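=== Structure Prediction Worksheet ===
Name of assembly: unnamed complex
Input type: mixed (protein and possibly other molecules)
Chain count: three
Listed entries:
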Amino acid sequence: MAKPRKKRTAAARNEAIWAWAFILPTIIGLIILNYYPAVETVIQSFYKTGDFGLGNKWVGLANYQKVLGSEEVWQSLWNTIKYAIIEVPFGVCIALLLAVFLNKKLKGTSVFRTIFFLPMVCAPAAVAMVWRWLYNQQFGLLNNVFHTQIAWISDPNLAWISIGIIGVWSVIGYNMVLFISGLQEIPGDYYEAAAIDGATGIKQFFKITVPLLSPTTFFIVQTRLIGALTVFDLMFMVLDKTNVALKKTQSIVYLFYDYAFTKSNKGYGAAVVMVLVVFIMIITFILQRLEKKLVFYN
Amino acid sequence: MKRILALVLTLMMVMGLMGGMTAASAADFTINVNIWDSNQQAGLQAIADDWTAISGVPVKIEVVNWDSYWTLLAAGAQGGKMPDVFWTHSNTVQMYMDNDLLLKLNDYIAKDGVDMSLYYEDIVALYTRSDGNIYALPKDHDTIALLYNKAIFDKYGVAYPTDDWTWEDMYEAAKKIQEAGAADGVYGMAMNTSNNQDGWYNLVYDYGAQVITDDHKGTTIGSDAGKAGMDMVRKLLTVGAPQSVVAETGTDSLFQSDKVGMITQGSWMINSFYKAEHHADYCWAALPYADVNGNGQCDDGERWSCYNGLGWAAAFNTEHPDECASLIEYFCSVDAQKKQAELGVTMAGIKGISDEFANAFPGMDVSAFTKAESFKLYFRPYTRNTVAWEDPIQQAGGFLDAWQNPADPALMATACENAQRIIEEAIAAE
Amino acid sequence: MESAIARARLSKTVIYIILILFSFIMIVPFAWMILTALKTNQEAISVDPFYIFPANGWHWDNFGKVWESYNFLVLYKNTLLMILFRVICACLTATMAGYAFGRLRFPGKNLMFALVLVQMMIPSQIFIIPQYLMVSKLGLLNTVTGLVFPGLVTAFGTYLLKTGYQGLPKDLEEAAAIDGCNIGQRFLRIMMPLTRSSMVSLGIFTALFAFKDLMWPMIVCTRADTTTLAAGLAKMQGQYGNDYPTMMASAVLALVPMIVIYVIFQKQFVEGIATSGGKL
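=== Predicted Assembly ===
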């Protein structure tokens, strides 16, 4: 009985060696490129950055005290949440609606699909530029068409909605494509059976489609939520430095970039980032809990 | 799949070839120059090419816009890869000098016999460190003037600005234009919080206060004189374009679209207006003054213009210090400075070459800028880390609040006090 | 019976109306971008938005002006190279690691995979400053390698491919083992080719997100001749500020290549993205 055991061990060891060789590049990469930097950032948040990164001074929790007591930081976190509140629900619902429509055997669905997905292949930098012009208070298309003088991106009470709209516009196509793929996995028999039982289209939607689509929906909500919380490009490109709505619209990542790179205060910027990281971890945790309750796996 | 791969590989090869081709035609090395004003690029490249003809070293000038310029230069300084030659500015040069990031030029100046007395003293002083080492050569100086659109004045029947205007006169004219032009969407004037050097700073000084005191350690913007100056700014804003409009569209764009009667601007921007579609309508007048003592004439200290002097500097760790120093000296030599003025790039850092500049724009009278030399001039306000207060006073919590509602004088007074506090705190943290 | 058909037709019409409405909303910004790029500053600011055919014709010279003052060819090249190398690196490392996690057994597997999973949950902004400092210390600022740096390995790709490998039939490996293949040969000859759809998916996903990345290229490649399209656009906006026709022209030039590629290969794009989401 000793012989088979030795064979297994040799084979198992061989497999282990191959496996480790295969995962080594990725694991080393993750450690060097991600885990080490994460630790570095945490450490850096305890320093006050000197001119040009020379002469960094240890200040302990001073950066955090300032960050946690800073109205600006909390406001920007709230701004980011407001943006997510627009981008995620609207992005998901509209995309779901469009996906359901395009899943029916109608003519021209591929043309529609191409059009809806188009914003997704565009660099946010360019998208932001165009919308900035569309929203222009004096000469923008929106105000001209509706004959209004609305300060879409200069009104502190309105700017976050306007930016949220750009976000939704950009992301509908992506969400929709994922929904379509999810919809196609739902066997048609369910619908036939329901139709025989006399269920209407809308009832079918809520009783069959929504539950069976929940894994996809959950995935989309989770990724888009984290994506929305880390938004940067839109605010950076659309809002001018002297825009009066800036404080009520800037995202927390925008604030991070401003402190870490524009103002060269990397220690403070690192502390700001940590606030975001903690917040996202909390959200992820909550989502994982909700997944067990809400998502219906086959 | 195969199709994609083939396409991509072909593209890659083509790109590689192209890259290879351009690399082969370049010389041994190129001096990289960074500036932030695209208006000056063509002229400076012409001057640089003259130097290349003598030295045999090609020069490549690249424009990085103002907002990114300092971020990227600092990033380069930290990472060890700055451009070879670049502009320095009063805002930050002290920090760069203190950290030994600029090439020391003393030896080159002595060896090549550069005559430092030719340049404006204030600018030389700016670029000399406390221990006497010189780190940049004066490149230019600039002044401010009033720009107005003749066609708009004609259309609404308002008399043109004269060189004897007070700010009150400007207010009256702007008011007429604003009221008459309301139906057409035309404004009397336009100014954003970011138009500091070319805009509201000058009113602060005209009324007797200082944005930064002479010792660079304090400010009097919150004083009564400062408040008086900013109140005049407030008055002007009531007959000007709303802040949200200038933030979104910019004073220059608005002016060039014939939507604004007057703006104030600096001599470095002349080219942009000279080349604009309707340049025939654009005229420059002297910057108005503040008749503080009410005697109906312009007394000493009632008319100020901001002036600034950029410097040419080299990175402390450039691989070609000799060539860089030579290039810098060339840029700041009498011949090149004259050419710089003749081409209408900017006014010289060397004293007495103003005439060339005044004649550089046939068809457009820019003498208002050279006339400004006879005003009292104050150097653009700076401290060791200027950006730390310069940006915040333009934003919410600073003057941006007052700009939102020019009709309310109390807002502007509060803003002055806030600005005073912001500046003092920033200086204390330096 | 008839009312059911009529109702079906009505709902079909409503559906089409909604689809067309949204299509319109999707397209209008692009149309507006192109139209503005063909005007002068003056015309762009004229209040009539339907000013499609200006008196002096369309100003194609805006494109020429932007093309000359900003070396777009170089921007295309840099962006293309960055995308290409990120895709290659991602596919290579992820397929190897994905195979190992998905099909092999080895000690420490769970712990290592936990590393992969956790990375996917951390927002990338926490990596950016130290990554930047590393790149600059290595002298890789303003290089394509610097641009590719954060994308050398991918946790997301590893996860995606692991799921892909797990989905393959178990017997394949046993058959190969009987035939005398070692693990490396099994991987290369049999398993990897079967995950083609996941690889394409990963490739497209990586390419798209590399193309859109703004912050990293902006801070790493500060010179105009080394930066990418997205960062170059941001710089141009700073320079041309409020000269909208010029900015729109530069936006058009930045977007056109990717849009053209997308339209040609749209089926692959859409399927690729769908698979990347569906597998997770």
